[in-house]
Amino acid sequence: MNANHDGDRVEAALGRLRELGERITPARQAVLRVIDTADRAEEHLSAEHIGERVATLEPSVHRATVYRTLTALTGAGVLTHVHLGGTGTVYHLATPASEAAPGVSPAAYGTDVSEPHGHGHTHVQCVVCGRVQDAPPGVLDEAARIMRDDLGFELDTSHAALLGRCADCVPT
Amino acid sequence: MNANHDGDRVEAALGRLRELGERITPARQAVLRVIDTADRAEEHLSAEHIGERVATLEPSVHRATVYRTLTALTGAGVLTHVHLGGTGTVYHLATPASEAAPGVSPAAYGTDVSEPHGHGHTHVQCVVCGRVQDAPPGVLDEAARIMRDDLGFELDTSHAALLGRCADCVPT
DNA sequence: CTGCCTGCAAAGGATTTGCACTCAT
DNA sequence: ATGAGTGCAAATCCTTTGCAGGCAG
Fold first, then answer.
1. Which chain D positions come under 7 Å from a protein C-beta?
2. What is the CATH number of domain B3-120?
3. From the list B142, B147, B162, which residue is nearest A164 (CB)?
4. Taking the model in full, what pTM does it have?
């Protein structure tokens, strides 16, 4: 029923991989599927956590492969990662700016560390409960402008999460 | 000379520790001195790196103690840490809102639940060269306002560094 | 004196790497 | 066929922890 829908974005990612001459393997498909599912549930999975889910989905896939896959797919631009303060890094499908659904962080990340365009959602994490949520679009526009004008620094607004206290954890 | 000046802030920190009933030990003094010196040089040291310097300054201090000290002193409020995206955490002396950086206003602070912050200003890190620099005061004011109004989320503007490309690394 | 802080060493846990093999192309 | 990807396992790396003793207060 919805396995097809879920597969849409995975398919797109696989397609892009093919275009790039990257190989489609069970491990990569599993990783993509896991992340896609998490994205839709607005979950934010770390490499380790992704590994766990992949293990249940495709037990033959080794943990090390998951790490290598995440690196490779991020390099290929089909995945994005967001650094959370202190609590590691989480991965997302790099949606081609199409269906910027709530909870998803699109970002066109080219190869490696060389992409100026970080036009995705900014994430914020609560230092008390650890919850990660999406910030309103454009929250960092002003900051980006200041940084650019002032220091010539090009901010990547979706690469690192901001920290603070969420509404539930703010002492009133 | 300036060895005295260096000691000023360390002294202040030690004073606060005393007030809190915390003990003043060689290890703690060494850690504070190392961080104070780094701060003045605008360096951003990780726990590990601090450990190295402490080792040369006070060889008898064990690495494990450095970690425990950093945790303890941060808890006591005399140290602050900033999470850098992906590259760990760096420590600073928690300046009592006096002579932090040019133009930094004392952040209004509510609770102490998890972060007695302090370094007061936002950091930005270049994803290409790794350099960490201070952002202009107030860069995140607008973002903080939006987050508060929109989500009731209280942003901690100095707890995590923003990522991007510094002027030297931005592709022209 | 007391017990907070430390030294030491060993455990821990996440990520990486060398190597040989396999499978996608 | 052929080399990109993978499995496996060992190696790292940073950080934490248990315990006993030492020093600050």
1. 4-10, 14-18, 23-25
2. 1.10.10.10
3. B147
4. 0.85
